[in-house]
Amino acid sequence: MGLPQALDVWLPGAELFAAKVDDRRTPVIVRIDRATPERDGFRYALVYTGFEAGRFDLRTALRRADGAPLPQTVPPVPVEIRGLRPPGDIRLNGVGDSPEPRLGGYRLALGTVGALWLVGLIGLVTVRRRGPQVLAQPAPDTEATIEDRLRTLLTSAARGTANPADHAELERTVLVYWVRRLGLRTQDPAVLCATLRGHPEAGPMVTRLEAWLHAPPSDAPVNVSELLTVFRPLLSAPEQEGQL
């Protein structure tokens, strides 16, 4: 009782359909999952659910296409619904002890993921905002050695021994060099690069360096010595030119 049961049955005549259920007190409800033509009738895959114990005829839950009751030529479809307990016994099964549900669950996991995402977003925005300022505010420990480091990177690039990390440091060091030399530390980073490109001395160096480092890959060999011609004054400068 209360559990769906499957039944395969052949019935003669035109195709039948499950009757519409309007009364909640209906003892048996029938659903037709499949109706396959066979001989002079149809073979039906029925699923019925009984809500009262007893014997029933499923024909009462079937109708013709026009809604009329079944003709007398349709044989009975008897089923028996059995209850799990004797009539009148409505005792409920006991509920066993179970551990208390752990607080949190899905909401806690969702909140944790959201918090991590927010922290990452704040960190990304902070890095992006501080990025341009690194050029205008170099670390204090590079004040006395920036020209030496620039000369070393340029020499390595001219010899073809520089790696991608050296190229990135070279570009950063050239920009910092000219920012300090021209006193542009307090200038807005948004217009700093445009100012350097327009300077008569810094402009050729910055422009050639960007064109070399950021040009798309090519099969043609690059003449590094020719590209670095504009940097000859730095390569030939004395080892110490004093504090910038």
What does this protein structure show overall?
The chain has 244 residues and is α+β, with helices and mostly antiparallel strands. The protein has 2 domains: 77 residues; 103 residues. The protein is built from 8 helices and 7 strands. The strands form 3 sheets. A 3-stranded antiparallel beta sheet has the order 1-4-3, with no helix packed on it. β3 and β4 form a beta hairpin. The longest helix is centred in the middle third of the chain and has 25 residues. The radius of gyration is 43 Å and the shape is rod-shaped. The chain starts with a strand and ends in a 9-residue tail after the last helix. Keywords: Membrane, Transmembrane, Transmembrane helix.
Brief overview:
With 244 residues, the chain is of the alpha+beta class. The chain has helices at 106-130, 133-136, 146-159, 164-181, 189-198, 202-213, 224-227, 232-235; strands at 5-12, 17-18, 28-38, 41-50, 54-57, 62-63, 78-81.
Name the descriptors.
244 residues; alpha+beta; 2 domains; three-stranded antiparallel sheet; two-stranded antiparallel ribbon; 7 strands; 37% helix; disordered C terminus; membrane; transmembrane helix
